[in-house]
Amino acid sequence: MIIDQFKENGSIYYAGVKNRSQISSAFVQSLEEIGIYLHTLDRAATAGRAIDIHLKNPYTGRPMTGSSSGTAINVLLGINDIGIGTDGGGSVLAPAMAVNLIGFISPLLDQENRKRLTSKISTDGIAFQPSLGFITEEFDLLKKVVNVMLPVEEVSEMNIEIIYDPVDFSKKEIDAWEGQTSVKDLSFKFDARERVMPKLKELLANCDVLISKEGPIDTDGLGDTVLGHFDQRTQEQQRQGKKGNLRVVNMLGATAITLPAEEFAVGYLLICESTPKKISKMLQFSEEWSQVKNPYTRYFSDCREYYPKEFG
């Protein structure tokens, strides 16, 4: 069994959990059974905002992207190996992308607990239930956890139908993909959610995986609907936060993973419908993706920077 293989690894991992009641104790305990132990309760952005006015992005010094802001920061700092957050309108995917980490969400995680949750209303009037998700720097760790926590399976034949926007990729990247590909203009991804959702839903029904390059997250603007609702100027500032399809993945009941690009705060968002077969294909395709390692995390994750020399 996969869970036995996980245990045989013998490693112990530390997890940070977003300080929100939507993450059940049963879900956290199920992670401990495979050697992932609760280490920190992480600060979340006030009222679930898409920016956190109390925490700063360690790279930029600007407001940290929310609302799983503290969870992403504690992974970046090396305090935790993996973080567990909640995502209503991008609250896991966007913070992960903002600091060049890997993010993953799916409504299939902890389904029993999700049944008891009441729906929320976003600042732009859309009803949703939050999904759970993970933030980590290590794809292998994410894959192991997802294989245990979700009904995924090995895909023997990698015949995958992909939708992508060619402006986001080089010819070399496109030529490396196997299977059937469809080219679509995804520039609508930065429009208002109510316009993005029906278009994206239709596309997801006609592919295994849709790939959307997004970001840089909250470097040229702040992608926050609270701020964006004031006037045309703040709406443009919100749009310059460069949060695209990641804002609506959960609202569509879809599953997604974001993989860091070489550019700062930019990522490739891979989205699929929440079926075991499509999730399995997406994970296997993600594994074959060229993983980008951020060489600058050492500036934040070296514990010697935080303790006197006598404790080193």
Describe the structure concisely:
The protein has helices at about 1-10, 25-30, 70-75, 95-100, 110-115, 140-150, 170-175, 195-205, 225-230, 230-240, 275-290, 300, and strands at about 15-20, 35-40, 50-55, 65, 80-85, 100-105, 120, 125-130, 130-135, 160-165, 180-185, 210-215, 255-260, 265-270.
Structure report:
The protein is α/β, with parallel strands linked by helices. Helices cover 29% and strands 21% of the residues. The strands form three sheets. The protein has a ten-stranded mixed beta sheet, sandwiched between helices. A two-stranded antiparallel ribbon has the order 3-4. A two-stranded antiparallel ribbon has the order 7-8. A hairpin with a 6-residue loop joins strand 3 and strand 4. The protein starts with a helix and ends in an 11-residue tail after the last helix. The model has no long low-confidence stretch (mean pLDDT 89).
Distance N to C terminus = 40 Å
The share of residues in helices is 25-40%
Number of strands: 14
> What are the segments in which pLDDT stays under 50 over at least 5 consecutive residues?
none
Strand content: 15-25%
Series of secondary-structure elements, N-terminal to C-terminal: HEHEEEHEHEHEEEHEHEHEHHEEHH
Major sheet details: 10 strands, mixed
> Which strand order do you get reading across the main beta sheet?
2-1-5-9-6-13-14-12-10-11
Oligomeric organization of the protein chains: single chain
Q: Roughly how many Å is the radius of gyration?
A: 18 Å
The residue-averaged pLDDT reads: 89
Structural class call reads alpha/beta
Shape: globular
